[in-house]
Amino acid sequence: MQSKNKTVVKSMCLLNLFITHAKLNLNEMVELSGVPKTSVYRMIGSLEDMGFLTKDEEGKYSLGLLFLQFGQLVAERLDIRQIALPIMQNLRDDVGEAVNLIVKDGKESIYIEKLDTNHPVRLYTKIGRRAPLYAGACSRILLAYLSDDEREQYLNEIELHPIGLGTITDREKLRLALELSRKEGYSVSHSELENYTSAVAAPIFNHMGQMVAGLSVAGPDVRFQDERLPELIKKVKEAANQISEKLGFMDSSLVNL
């Protein structure tokens, strides 16, 4: 196990003081933490610069609004997992394929929940897996529903590396695929993240109409042939819409059911 960074540990000790104290001045933090005054002074300066602490006119510190942003993000993601899980279970039992719940994290997607299929031949993924936003049905649906500016900035900055046989590495083809996904409310991928695998994905929206996650079914491509795709698309979109409605989303027309 790697040794912990002492400065980070001491900074967390200072922040932990605010769990039981709404406001503290410098001397109070020194007394409560047992950390030398010069060290506390340096650390709270950095924490204030980064938005973790804010200082009022009386020189007292309190937690910054950055914690509110983090708290909302964590709560939203946890709520999505809790709300989505029973719907994911129904979808998995209905279609017999693995079901994944994915959110955007920077320039990547990250799997925050998954349910495996009972098929002996299956696609193995795990919670915490990351993928670039341009590759795979679920990642690409997240990219498709970004704002125009965010999407274009990403497309102009990212290098499109081939991951599987079907990874889209042409920028214009990717733009067209994103436009189609946004128009139809779903995305389909074949051999983009792993060869001989396929996935179907749809977006999940919150009460403000913002895309907050993607839902997908995935498995070996032999079970995702053209004759079965319409059924899978319909069921994935229905499940994603059910989750959206439980998050307070009202305008179901956006998911094109």
How does this structure look, described?
- The strands form 2 sheets. This protein has a 6-stranded antiparallel beta sheet with strand order 5-4-3-8-7-6, sandwiched between helices.
- The chain has helices at residues 6-16, 26-33, 37-49, 65-95, 137-144, 148-157, 171-184, 229-246, and strands at 53-55, 61-63, 98-105, 108-115, 130-132, 187-190, 197-205, 211-220.
- 33% of the residues are buried.
- The protein is 44% helix and 19% strand.
Can you give keywords for this protein?
19% strand, six-stranded antiparallel beta sheet, alpha+beta, 257 residues, 8 helices
Record field, number of beta strands: 8
**How many distinct helices?**
8
Shape: elongated
Low-confidence stretches: none
Terminal Cα span? 50 Å
Class by SSE composition:
alpha+beta
Radius of gyration, CA atoms, in whole angstroms: 22 Å
Give the % helix: 40-55%
How many strands, what sense, and barrel or not for the largest sheet? 6 strands, antiparallel
What's the order of the H and E elements?
HHHEEHEEEHHHEEEH
Q: Main sheet: which strands, in order across?
A: 5-4-3-8-7-6
Mean pLDDT: 89
Q: How much of the sequence is in beta strands?
A: 15-25%
Layout of helices and strands, plus pairs?
Elements: H1 6-16, H2 26-33, H3 37-49, E1 53-55, E2 61-63, H4 65-95, E3 98-105, E4 108-115, E5 130-132, H5 137-144, H6 148-157, H7 171-184, E6 187-190, E7 197-205, E8 211-220, H8 229-246
Antiparallel strand pairs: 1-2, 3-4, 3-8, 4-5, 6-7, 7-8
Helix pairs in contact: 1-3, 2-3, 4-8, 5-7
In short:
44% of the residues lie in helices and 19% in strands. The chain is α+β, with helices and mostly antiparallel strands and 257 residues long. Helix 1 crosses helix 3 and helix 5 (137-144) crosses helix 7.
